[in-house]
Structures are given as structure tokens and as C-alpha cells.
Amino acid sequence: LRGIDDGLVQNGHVLVDLKHPCHITREFDALLIIREAKNIITSGYKSVLHVHTATEEVILSKLLHKVNAKNQRSRAPPPFIKQNEKCIVRIQTTKPICVERFEDFPQLGRFTLRDEGKTIAVGKILKLVETNTVNAAN
Length: 138
Description:
By secondary structure, the protein is mostly beta strands. It has one helix at residues 106-109; strands at residues 23-34, 45-51, 54-67, 86-99, 110-115, 118-133. The protein has a 6-stranded antiparallel β-barrel with strand order 1-4-3-2-5-6. The radius of gyration is 16 Å and the shape is globular. The two termini are 18 Å apart. The model has no long low-confidence stretch (mean pLDDT 87).
């Protein structure tokens, strides 16, 4: 890039085309696959989200559905999830982040959740709950 000070570009920043802006959100629904968890995971669980080059603290605010091996969703929200299970969850971030739905832009729609130096879960973003778009003025 020319004419841009290096100090203005940081981890988590996303360069976008003005015709196709990126979404900014603090809350989204995601499909999680729990890889390595010592205990059960309930709503209110805190961890660190790693998406593209961004790192952000998050809270699993709601467990929406368990997903079985045939990709069928449970009707009632599960009380907890554990290792090797799939679940659809609502995630809230502490600060706004640039992400997209996995269907629209896979590179900005996949992420990992880490806690205590271990990858707890991998996931993909299904729905952006509360969004704004990035433009040249922002």
C-alpha cells in the first residue's frame, strides 16, 4: 500500500473494496465443534476468539441448538455442551470485529475459540445478529 502510515494498520484490520464493505458486529450465531474441553461448556463461558488476524475476548451468551451427526438441530436449547459435540451458539464480543457469514466469505467466517493456550473449539459464522458496515468514512 502506498501513502498509508504503517502505524494505522494493525492486527484485526480488514482492507475492503468500497463496493463490497465488510460487516462490523458484536454479536453473531455460529456452529461450533468442541474439540478439547476439560469440563462442560454452558452459556456464559468466556474464551478468546481468533478470526483472520483479530483476537478478541468473547462470551457464549446462549446455547441455541445441539446438532447431531445427521446435522439435525435439537428443538430445545441444550443446558450444556461437551467435547466432540456440535452446537449452534450466540457469541458476544467485547469490541466490534469485522466478520462475514461463512457462506458469503469463508476466510472471514471461520474462527477458533481458545482458552488457557488450547484450542477449545472451531466454528463458522452462520448469522450476524447486530451489524454495521465499514465504509471509507469509518
